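> example.struct
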């Protein structure tokens, strides 16, 4: 089984071809991604209108290139999967409409994919991981703990009540004048800094409900930065290191709470997966590796190119659905908001 996957929900345009391995897991035959970071950098964040236009400019070319690299024609595909949300509606429409048009023209099944489901199932593409597992999804738009119990069977056990983690990194970078996207820049500064210099809050620490909050932490950094202003290089590094240390402590504590909820409500947990752009952060990876070691969990961290937005995860989610006989018709709507746990069939078809 071979599927073309198309992704355009945020600021990455992506097309990929993935095939199902007989023994499970997938082979990525092509994974083309074009980032729009340069187009948005001047604004310090993603501008929806610019994103939608940029998707239109490059998507056809990316699909052609993906098929060429995979050495398959449209006729040789078993289906076409497109991310139908959640995300910026203009961009979602570009990729979704393209996926539907190709499916119609090539007489192939069409599969509408929840972008978050793509992130949630990536560990099965890379590591053929068995259900159930605990997923920590940390990106610029999302911060969630999800029990992944089966295809289409997701239980959100915690999420942020305000900012996403990646968003907090981006905003801290912006207030310190570091640039966009902020995560990698804050991480680089943090390496040089003293994490003990500023005692930033660890939001939600110790609470049983595994929710997250990053807005207060961000504000604490802002207040401290304006107090010590004008900032020297040392202060910027120390602010970044202290901020990142607070994020790491918070994530580990929230994970501990999430694991308890998983065990109470679902049963034994053997594996944990981390996905989303923030999973590229080395300090976070190391802390989670330690936590999983202590908790007897195996940790699966997909490679960075599969943690950030990509087409392979959409193609793979398409494979997972198609092999269960789950396809969608061409009236499937683009959904700017689409919670993962409202993903039963009624919700999948936009009826809930
Ligand atoms: O998953 P992603 O590529 O896009 C979505 O938001 O869907 O994640 C991008 C986010 C940005 O907020 C970026 O600052 C953050 O991931 N990020 C990082 C790192 N690399 C990317 N955050 C912390 N440390 C990093 N090394
Ligand atoms: Zn994403």
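> example.seq
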């Amino acid at each position: 089984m071979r599927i073309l996957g198309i992704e355009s929900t945020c600021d990455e345009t992506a097309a990929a071809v993935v095939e199902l391995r007989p023994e499970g897991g997938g082979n990525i035959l092509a994974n083309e991604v074009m980032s729009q970071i340069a187009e948005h950098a001047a604004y310090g964040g993603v501008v929806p209108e610019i994103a939608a236009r940029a998707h239109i400019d490059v998507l056809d070319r990316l699909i052609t290139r993906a098929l060429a690299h995979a050495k398959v024609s449209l006729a040789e595909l078993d289906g076409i999967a497109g991310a139908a949300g959640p995300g910026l509606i203009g961009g979602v429409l570009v990729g979704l409409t393209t996926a539907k048009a190709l499916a119609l023209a090539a007489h192939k099944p069409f599969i509408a994919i929840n972008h978050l489901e793509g992130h949630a199932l990536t560990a099965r593409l890379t590591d053929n991981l068995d259900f159930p597992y605990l997923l920590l999804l940390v990106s610029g738009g999302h911060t969630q703990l999800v029990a992944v119990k089966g295809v289409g069977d997701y239980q959100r056990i915690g999420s942020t009540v305000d900012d996403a983690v990646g968003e907090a990194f981006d905003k801290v970078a912006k207030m310190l004048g570091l640039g966009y996207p902020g995560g990698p820049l804050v991480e680089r500064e943090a390496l040089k800094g003293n994490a003990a210099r500023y005692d930033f809050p660890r939001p939600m620490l110790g609470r049983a409900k595994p929710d997250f909050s990053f807005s207060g932490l961000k504000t604490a950094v802002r207040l401290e930065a304006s107090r010590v202003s004008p900032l020297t290089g040392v202060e910027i590094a120390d602010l970044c290191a202290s901020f990142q240390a607070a994020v790491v402590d918070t994530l580990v504590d929230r994970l501990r709470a999430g694991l308890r909820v998983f065990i109470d409500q679902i049963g034994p947990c053997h594996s944990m997966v981390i996905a989303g752009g923030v999973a590229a952060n080395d300090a976070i990876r190391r802390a989670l590796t330690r936590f999983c070691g202590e908790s007897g969990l195996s940790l699966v961290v997909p490679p960075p190119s599969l943690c950030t937005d990509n087409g392979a995860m959409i193609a793979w989610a398409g494979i997972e659905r198609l092999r269960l006989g789950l396809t969608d018709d061409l009236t499937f709507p683009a959904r700017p908001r689409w919670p993962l746990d409202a993903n039963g069939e009624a919700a999948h078809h936009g009826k809930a």
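> remarks
The first helix runs from residue 37 to 41.
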